From TrEMBL:
Pfam families per the UniProt record, alphabetical: MerR, MerR_1
UniProt cross-references to SMART domains, sorted A to Z: HTH_MERR
Molecular function via GO: DNA binding; DNA-binding transcription factor activity
Protein name according to UniProt: MerR family transcriptional regulator
Keywords: DNA-binding
Residue ranges occupied by any HTH merR-type domain in the UniProt entry: 1-50, 121-176
InterPro entries noted in UniProt: DNA-bd_dom_put_sf, MerR-type_HTH_dom, MerR_fam
Amino acid sequence: MGLRPVDLARRAGVSTQLVRNYEADGILPPAPRSETGYRQYGPEHLAALLTYRALAPGFGAETASEIMRAVHHGDEAHAFRLVDAAHAALHEQRLATDAASEALAALAAEYVDEQPVSGPSLLVGELAHRLGIRPSALRVWESAGLLAPAREPGTKYRRYGPEEVRDARIIHMLRQGRYYFEQIKPVLDGLRRTGSTEALRAAIAERRAAHDRQTKAMLYGAAMLHELLTAGEPQGASAPTAPAP
């Protein structure tokens, strides 16, 4: 069955140019050319295209591309390693979210503590060093409205008091958890105004839900990959076997 670029594009819901780009990137196997120079696609190209499109949401475009290139080069072992590495990375993200949740809860408790927050005020470089980040990150957070350090008279140097240091620690933890500024701002606003941790709990719950969505997407993509790799095999020949005890 001969397929035109437009046929593949329609089946996958992409543009014909994107189909050509996928072939150039090795996501699709090379397509033979007709005597007149037109690409001649077949069912194997459609299967590869649909597999890549299923892999990308869960594994990311870069990893999905590398998986497909490994498949086309006959290196299934490398493709499996990439799948395993992606699952391991997501598991590490889940663990990091759990750890951050506990640490953030402890920091948030300082907002409702009747005792005022104590500690020295820090210059931008000092706070950056304490957090293990670049000073430019603190300036970006300030521009985003997350921090508002005081300025020294005369020098105009930024000074981060104990409250700003505490807030910076929360921002840093949330950024490590891949939270966006628009997710962080309501967390800080709620803590500052009323000491409420509702927005913080919601942000953490959404992060965990995002992990679940990614897992589901990875499972779907892996199922499509399995179908691609076992196409043409006798029924039951590709059934997984249990490891030896």
